[in-house]
Amino acid sequence: MLSELVGALVGLGAVGLVYVSAAARVVKQYERGIVFRFGRLLGPARLPGFTVIVPFVDRLQKVNMQIVTLPIPAQEGITRDNVTVRVDAVVYFKVIDPANAVIQVEDYRFAVSQMAQTSLRSIIGKSDLDDLLSNREKLNQGLELMIDSPAVGWGVQIDRVEIKDVSLPDTMKRSMARQAEADRERRARVINADAELQASKKLAEAAGVMSQQPAALQLRLLQTVVAVAAEKNSTLVLPFPVELLRFLERAQGATGQDGAHSALDAPEQPVSDTSEQPAESPSAPADGTAPQLSEAAAEESSATPVHGLAQVPLGEGASTPSGEAPPELWAEPTTEDVPPAPAPASATRDE
């Protein structure tokens, strides 16, 4: 009898232990428990700690209340200014109503992920490339509102949305690099021009001061020579004053003008009287051939010496290179060849 009672107590204890182990649940601090009894929601969510349900009747589902980091896969789209980009982002959200997160949506993580991808593509199509690159804060706020609107009914709150990276085509990257380089070069030229303007003003002031004291320019020249010689150079360059070149140029111009005035002031040369002209030579025929002389005139001209020259032969045996007889050359006559001068006629004729 006693043994049967002990056995019954042991059996009841075992059954009670099994029941307690099946009914006892522990909800963690960052979780909430949703109890379903015969498939229906039972009361509010169970708080963290130890809780008991009816075994084989109730079902406890735990919901994580921590902030979830959900990366959005890269989405490729075309911006409003027709540029193809690839954008990826990340969403931070948490469950604020565990009952709705379990009841209203099948899988709230997957639902938030799909909504984030759709909203991101929509934002890409409504924005310009410059906004994606420089005005991301505004785009993040717009994307957060687009995702948070349907997520509120799911018991989910979107904490934050961030655009991580914007991938551009290589051609667009090169174009933007050239644009940035051109802009920087433009600013560098503007700065350089401004510096040149300021330097020119200072140089003009310095020139005005040096013009009052000519010795200041010579002292400045000597300072430049000292600065060049301090670097141990083997060649020393001395500047040549430009004023000296201008002085020489003015002096040369003045000399040329004096010569021109002296040539203009010279007396005019008398023109020789051409009234007494020698008899014109026989005109040449119209056909351009040499004029023909008569035989008597030809003999007379050959026999008469011209301008006191006599015709003498070269000598016997002389010949020209062509083998013909050498022509007679004119030579100065000797005293023997010159005929005596006639006696002067008497002033009076004999009666």
From TrEMBL:
Coiled coil: none annotated. It comes from the Bacteria. InterPro entries: Band-7_stomatin-like, Band_7, Band_7/SPFH_dom_sf, Stomatin_HflK_fam. CDD domains: SPFH_eoslipins_u1. Residues 22-180 form the Band domain. SUPFAM superfamilies: Band 7/SPFH domain (SSF117892). Gene3D superfamilies: 6.10.250.2090, Band 7 domain (3.30.479.30). Residues 256-351 are annotated as: Disordered. Residues 271-280 have a biased composition (Polar residues). Residues 294-303 have a biased composition (Low complexity). PANTHER family: AT06885P-RELATED, BAND 7 PROTEIN-RELATED. Belongs to the band 7/mec-2 family. This is Slipin family protein. It comes from Streptomyces gibsoniae. The lineage of its organism: Bacteria, Bacillati, Actinomycetota, Actinomycetes, Kitasatosporales.
